C-alpha cells in the first residue's frame, strides 16, 4: 500500500516495511503517550499482535502518534513491535487526514484491506477487547464482504 510510503521506523531502526507488503490485514493505530486509554490499550495490542504473528506475519500495524513532542513520541514507540514514522515525517499527517473521518477518538485502531486501503472497521480496539484473538478472523470475514 503505497499510500503509507516506504520509509518507516521500527525498534530495530529504519525499514521499508517488508511485512506490510505481505500482511493479510493492516492496522493503523492512532494513539498518544498522554492518553490514559492508550496507555491501557497498547499492552493488550502488543500481546494481540505478537500472538497473531507468532507463526507467520499476518497483521502489520502502523502507529500514528499524536504526541505533542518528539521525546514523548520516542517513549511511546520504544516498546512497540510494529512500524511507525519518524516524529516529523509528513506521510503520517497525510495518513491521518485520509482516515480522520473514521477516527472517533484515541486510541483508535483502524483495520484495513491491504489490497486497497479500504477501512474494514474503525472498531479494532473494541473488537480485540471483546473477541481477543478471534478478532483477526472476524476482520478477515468482514473483509470478504467489502
From TrEMBL:
It catalyses: [protein]-dithiol + NAD(+) = [protein]-disulfide + NADH + H(+); [protein]-dithiol + NADP(+) = [protein]-disulfide + NADPH + H(+). GO terms for molecular function: protein-disulfide reductase [NAD(P)H] activity. It is an enzyme of class 1 (oxidoreductase). It comes from the Eukaryota. Keywords: NAD, Oxidoreductase, Repeat. Its EC number is 1.8.1.8. Residues 24-117 form the Thioredoxin-like fold domain. The keyword NADP does not apply. This is protein-disulfide reductase. It comes from Paramecium pentaurelia.
Amino acid at each position: 500500500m503505497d499510500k503509507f510510503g516506504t520509509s518507516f521506523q521500527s525498534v530495530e531502526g529504519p525499514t521499508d516495511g517488508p511485512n506490510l507488503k505481505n500482511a493479510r490485514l493492516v492496522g493503523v493505530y492512532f494513539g498518544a503517550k498522554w492518553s490514559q486509554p492508550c496507555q491501557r490499550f497498547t499492552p493488550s495490542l502488543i500481546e494481540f499482535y505478537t500472538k497473531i504473528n507468532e507463526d507467520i506475519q499476518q497483521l502489520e500495524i502502523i502507529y500514528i502518534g499524536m504526541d505533542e513532542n518528539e521525546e514523548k513520541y520516542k517513549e511511546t514507540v520504544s516498546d512497540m513491535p510494529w512500524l511507525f514514522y519518524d516524529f516529523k515525517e509528513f506521510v503520517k499527517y497525510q495518513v491521518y487526514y485520509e482516515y480522520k473521518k473514521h477516527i472517533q477518538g484515541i486510541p483508535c485502531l483502524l483495520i484495513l484491506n491491504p489490497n486497497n486501503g479500504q477501512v474494514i472497521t474503525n472498531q479494532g480496539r473494541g473488537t480485540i477487547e471483546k473477541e481477543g484473538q478471534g478478532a483477526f478472523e472476524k476482520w478477515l470475514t468482514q473483509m470478504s464482504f467489502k
